[in-house]
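Hi P.,

Sorry for the delay on this. The queue was packed all week, but I finally got your sequence through. Input first:
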Amino acid sequence: MRPVRMLASATAAAAGVTALLAGPADAAASQQAERAPVFVQTDNPAGNTIVAYDRTGSGSLVQAGRYPTGGRGGVLDGSVVDHVASQGSLTYDRGSGLLYAVNAGSDTITTFAVRGDRLVRRQVLPSGGSFPVSITAHGNLVYVLNARAGGSIQGYLRIGEVLVRIPAWHRGLGLDPTQTPEFTSTPGQVVFTPDGSRLLVPTKGGTSSIDVFRVGPSGPSAPTVTSLPGAVPFSVAFDAAGHVAVAEAGPNAVATFRLGRDGRLTELDSVPTGEAATCWIVSAGGTLYLSNAGSGTVSRFAVDRLGALTGLGTTATDAGTVDAAGSSDGSFLYVQAGAAGIVDAYRIGAGGSLTRVGSVTVPGAAGGEGIVAL
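Then the structure:
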């Protein structure tokens, strides 16, 4: 079936359900602003769960609820504190008010409607591949990254609060499924560019490259590949100027790139963190924060309008620093420490400084990844 006809069919099939499920978006957004929750994914193989926390005025966290995804977490071979070895395994779509989670052990994704600090499970859908580890959204498009069987991305059309999987929006990455160790050889993330026109996939040690897919009505294009020998690009973030900032696990460094119209990346700057297992990166309050799993630290960097980097120091966390998320107002940073399933909370100060304001142990989340802060 041609893609246009598939979209029309999908729209008609979901229209009635959409009318029933659509909620008052303005009221939901108001509740979210008041409660400013933080959601943490456990990635537990016995049963994946999203644990909801309310953020207090000081930035500390108070548990507000637990929500099973209806799927199971998974563990990549060789992983210790980072079972899915990825960034973006839990994603919030502010435009639709939906939260998306991957169930790596079940080859599914789960959608939740966010109602303040409460979640309402809407769907559990096939991921279109093996071992989903990352998910991203822009407008009415959602894409998931599957890590095993050579890696793949799969696209969905969002209609109201309903996702419809479009089989034609599937692309294999062509990675070697026998390469070891698995947790450093599988792809680490799928993420839309800020304008939603392209998808980026860092392949870590699989091919040590970043694949860029242009997104259109027929799905993702063939990728434009920027090879980064020895870099082991793990995850990416975007600074205020739209530069691509990359956590490079090979040299334990952060690098910035300009993304060209042809999909190729041109390096602008690169600075070592001086830490071990630099794998995750987020942008919050105008500062880049990199998680160093082997050191139990977060490295802080400023980046100027030309992409030049300046180190701002390191901050200690609990053991096994993995994924992180900044609050939407830029005031707080929440960092997962996978060794014991802890989330450390920090107030962001002048120059990107971090002051710890508390920590919580998330039930059943040792080795888990995936965090969202509203």
